[in-house]
Amino acid sequence: MALRAPTPTRPTLTRRVIRPIGLIVALAALAVCMLLSVTVGAKPIPAADVWAALTAYNGGYDHDVIRTLRLPRTIIGVFVGAALGMAGALMQALTRNPLAEPGILGINSGAAAAVVIAVFLFGLSGAGLVWPAFVGAAVAAIAVYALGSRGRASATPVRLALAGTALAAVLQGLIYGVIVLNDFVFDRIRFWQVGSLTGRDLDLFWQVAPFLVAGIVLTLALGPSLNAIALGDDLAATLGARIPLIRAGTAVAVILLCGAATAAAGPIWFVGLIIPHAARVITGPDQRWMLPYSAVLGAILLTASDTVGRVILPGSELEVGIITAFVGAPLFIALVRSRKMAQL
Amino acid sequence: MNKTLAPPRPDEHTHTRPRGTVAWRSKGERLSFLLRPRTLIVCLVLALVSVVALVVSVTVGDYEIPLSAVPGALMGYGERLDVFFVQGVRLPRALTAIGVGAALGVAGAVFQSLSRNALGSPDIIGFTSGAATGAVFAILVLGASRLVVSLGAVAGGLITAAVVYLLAMKNGVQGYRLVLVGIGVSAMLASVRDYLLTRAELTDALGAQIWMIGSLNGRGWGEVAAVWIGFALLAPVLFAVGQRLRFMELGEDAAQGLGVNTRSTQVIALAAASALTGAAIAVAGPIGFVALAAPQLARRLTRTGGTTLIGAALMGATLLVLADLVAMRALAPTQLPVGVVTAVIGGSYLIWLLYTEWRGGRA
After folding, report:
1. Is the N or C terminus of chain B more exposed, i.e. has fewer CB atoms within 10 Å?
2. Is A152 touching B (CB cutoff 8 A)?
3. Cα–Cα distance between A11 and A177 in angstroms, integer?
């Protein structure tokens, strides 16, 4: 993995200028989104009070809201969005498939099945569901990747999607069976499966943070190697890339990122699918730039969607998972229509 | 197809028959066609199995009825409880299973043929998702009766299928694009359903969830009539275009070269198959994976290259009546919705299918 990056194409001058500036702009936009996420809600709190809550905590109601509700939620949103954006970019690079996305590849249903089992057998709830979701997501991802990469050719886009569909079917059947037998489980799962940041606290963040950080570090380290893989297996091997190692490392990073994100916020559709495409428009195919961009843009989408969800309906909240699906699906369809699906 | 061609002389062309077929001719060769003994035997066996399963599901249950009492109960003789269970409960339920299974089998075969994809089923192009969303809306928002829920399901499914078809259209509708657009639209609809489910009372939400899984519990003669009439009207349309569909599996250009109007065949087949799926869903909810698995299983059992609609119908009927038997008895006295059984069995089958196909290097 010590391979020094062969960039796919020499970037143009404008792109070399745009990339760093764009990243600074995106980070600034993320800061604005975070500020909005902390200040906007059922009770608007001015930015000055937010600052006071952090620096000069007075124990008042507003300060409590900031410290125990809004700030944890914002931080988790940023990390979950970044993780999903990066995981999507990794999946797409790994499978050389513009349509790869954690949800399509069975990770969500794996986590859901594990959560159902945990609620059904052990009566777990809330933060106790983090670990089952993580393990379920990891097992499902490994199974789908193994099933999709059988045979002579490597894991093609369609194979992985079909394998994910098949595995999701069986898991869904199991989930249905448990739900029907036990309406307590159903009551838990119907709220979990929407994908939401409501009521997430800092304890939960500290549980998943090690995985998220490990996943993000591993992902950034993988950038140059993924550039080599993008050239095709044969050429990458000629250049000295250790392909099995890179593949395994990528798979581990995806599992760390997606498992932790799904554990923290439930299954959120399509962030991982659309964000890498948005990033690629700005950065071009160079993974060393694309991966950080995907992280920042993913964080922006998730925090912005969450903030919109808090204010779009008067008197109640719309979960972030519902908003991202409504933003993501039309973009996905536009993508499907605009590409020549020759190999699919 | 080939009205203009002179029929080939039997002695000249016997050796060009596909392997495993037998030519059948009436006297004077006014009627002649190829028979595949294997296909015929498989179809007969499937029909036999579904009849046996029908008889078994009439006799077994928490209230057992001896086989010898069944004929009398059918006629209305014998113990009153026997007559009630056979005529009023178990026979209509099993007949509904057979009708729904056959409808889903045929519709699935048509969807797979059209998309040239083993995964092309009404589940995947979004029809089922639309129907489920329509029904959940009817149950949770309108608080509707079963009939209105069924109508909501059919309307939702047809609208969604039309939207997916239109969105996938770009110089014609390519199979995979149809599937992928279906996935995208299904995702949006799923989030609508999630929203509705989280905003409803628990009991209502559970009712809607069970409807979405698909169940045959408590289905009576009204449902039998609905699904069988739907099948009788729509299946012949699909059988009629079956040959053209088989040409289209060769590719659109090849089919057009053989004189098939591909656009009209596609539209007729999609519309009739969607309506047939709608009839099945209206009666039993969106039972998963029968439409996906039945055509593939039938194809493998008969060892034919193409899609056999009649085989798929019989396979679907057999699968569903057997799955319902399992759903009724597996955790008795608790009755599982049959969709739980079909999802587990159908999904496992699909994994096995992918596993074996890809091992062979086919993609």
Report:
1. N
2. yes
3. 54
Which residues numbered 96-125 in A keep a CB inside 8 Å of some CB on B? 99, 103-104
DSSP string, A107-160: HHHHHHHHHHHHHHHH---GGGGHHHHHHHHHHHHHHHHHHHT-SSS---HHHH
Domains of chain B: 10-359 (1.10.3470.10)
Question: Scanning every residue of chain A, which has its alpha carbon at the shortest distance from the alpha carbon of B327?
Answer: A177
State the Rg of chain B over Cα.
Answer: 22
CB-side exposure of B181: number of CA atoms within 13 Å? 25
Distance CA A158, CA A149 (A): 11
Distance CA B214, CA B335 (A): 12
Distance from CA of A217 to the nearest CA of B (A): 31
Residues B8-40 pLDDT 10s: 555 544 455 666 677 767 777 666 666 677 888
Closest-CA distance of chain B to residue A261, Å = 18
Distance between CA B342 and CA B322 in Å, rounded?
Answer: 10
Percent of chain A whose pLDDT exceeds 70: 88
Question: Could you say which of A153, A176, A194 has the minimum Cβ distance to residue B339?
Answer: A176
Residue A333 forms contact with B (CB below 8 Å) = yes
pLDDT above 70 (res B219):
yes
For residues A95 and B344, which has the higher predicted lDDT (pLDDT)? B344
Nearest to B110 by CA among B263, B280, B255, B266: B266
pLDDT digits (tens, 9 = 90+) for B100-118: 999 999 998 988 888 776 6
**Portion 150-179 of B in contact with A at CB < 8 A:** 167-168, 170, 174, 176-177
Cα–Cα distance, B319 to B327 (Å, whole number) = 12
The number of angstroms, rounded, from the C-alpha of B350 to the middle of its chain's C-alpha atoms is 16
Name chain A contacts of B206, Cβ cutoff 8 Å.
179, 183, 186
In which residue are the tokens 């109960």 written?
B73
Long-range CB contacts (within 8 A, 24+) of A229-234: A229/A93, A229/A94, A230/A8, A230/A93, A230/A96, A230/A285, A230/A287, A231/A6, A231/A8, A233/A154
Q: Is B183 on the interface with A (CB under 8 A)?
A: yes
Location of structure tokens 């069970």: B210
Between positions 229 and 288 of B, the ones with CB within 8 A of A are: 288
pTM for this one? 0.74
Distances (CA, A) of A290 to A276, A281, A302: 7, 9, 18
Per-residue pLDDT band at A80 (split at 50, 70, 90): very high
**Per-residue confidence (pLDDT) for residue A215, from 0 to 100:** 93
A271 to chain B, closest Cα gap in Å:
12
ipTM tops 0.90: no
- CA separation for the pair B138, B145 (Å, rounded): 8
User: Where are chain A's structural domains?
Assistant: 13-338
Distances (CA, A) of A182 to A119, A189, A200, B155: 10, 11, 26, 31
CB contact under 8 A, A341 and B177: yes
Name the band, by pLDDT with cuts 50, 70 and 90, for residue B66: confident
Residue A247 tokens read as 């593949």
**Residues of chain B positioned with their CB less than 8 A from the CB of A269:** 187, 190-191
Instruction: Please tell me the class of the A13-338 domain.
Output: mainly alpha
- The partner residue sitting opposite B354, judged by closest CB among A99, A147, A326, is A147
Nearest beta carbon to residue A180 from set B168, B177, B336? B336
